[in-house]
């Protein structure tokens, strides 16, 4: 599903990733772990096509990132993103936040996904009228709505307590069961209970 070959990255003169090569197979739940500053977010941003690596090659679902013609459609249709801060729009309802991200022919999925995530009854509420854990479930629903092949999550539970974190990991694990590939970068070692694979980074290298 994802093949990274000799990925390196520099911010200015500082090298933060060193010649990383690995594969992520379809249906894996990969935990990118490592201490603060080890390069997790940088690597996740590269894998999710948001950041161009300084060197190296990345194949996603058989396509070479960098040569993809319509990258916006590629991201919208194949990739779901979840971030620590959910970036929901406060002026739109839960339903509308998800509808905004949904491809036209996927809008019919919204209520089903809200139901599966246990937040259907919140669909008319606004983000500031629900809890942090519920907001992160909305962000997850938004990531799932286009039935992406891959979900990338950067510290998805960074602002949640342990119980809500477990709910989010459980929902990601459910997505994996139905065939989605999931890549999560986090400090939270609890993810090891859900992940099928772990890559541990230290100073920009795989341990
Ligand atoms: N935009 C940037 N410009 C310059 N240096 C950066 C930038 N982003 C990250 N860095 C540096 O790159 C290194 C790796 O950072 P990165 O955010 O990838 O690590 P991380 O493992 O995700 O850390 P954390 O867990 O604290 O989020 C760090 O030394 C950081 O200071």
TrEMBL record:
Matches recorded under InterPro entries: AAA+_ATPase (IPR003593), ABC_transporter-like_ATP-bd (IPR003439), ABC_transporter-like_CS (IPR017871), ABC_transpr_LolD-like (IPR015854), MacB-like_ATP-bd (IPR017911), P-loop_NTPase (IPR027417)
Entry's Gene Ontology cellular component terms: plasma membrane
Gene Ontology MF term list: ATP binding; ATP hydrolysis activity; transmembrane transporter activity
CDD domains reported in the protein's UniProt record: ABC_MJ0796_LolCDE_FtsE
Domain ABC transporter: 2-207
UniProtKB keywords: ATP-binding, Nucleotide-binding, Transport
UniProt-recorded name of the protein: ABC transporter ATP-binding protein
Biological source species: Sulfurimonas crateris
């Amino acid at each position: 599903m994802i093949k990274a070959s000799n990925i390196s990255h520099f911010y200015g003169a500082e090298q933060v990733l060193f010649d990383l090569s690995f594969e992520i197979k379809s249906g894996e739940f990969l935990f990118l772990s490592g201490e603060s500053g080890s390069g997790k977010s940088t690597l996740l941003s590269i894998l999710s096509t948001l950041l161009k690596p300084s060197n190296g090659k990345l194949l996603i679902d058989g396509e070479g990132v960098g040569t993809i013609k319509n990258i916006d459609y590629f991201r919208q249709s194949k990739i779901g993103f979840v971030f620590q801060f959910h970036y929901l729009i406060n002026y739109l309802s839960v339903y509308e936040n998800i509808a905004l991200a949904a491809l036209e022919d996927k809008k019919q999925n919204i209520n089903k996904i809200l139901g599966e995530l246990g937040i259907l009854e919140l669909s008319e509420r606004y983000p500031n009228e629900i809890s942090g854990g519920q907001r992160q479930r909305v962000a997850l629903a938004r990531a799932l709505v286009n039935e992406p092949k891959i979900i990338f999550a950067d510290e998805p539970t960074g602002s949640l307590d342990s119980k809500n974190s477990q709910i989010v990991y459980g929902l990601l694990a459910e997505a994996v069961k139905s065939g989605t590939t999931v890549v999560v970068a986090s400090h939270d070692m609890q993810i090891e209970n859900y992940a099928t694979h772990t890559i541990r980074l230290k100073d920009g290298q795989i341990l």
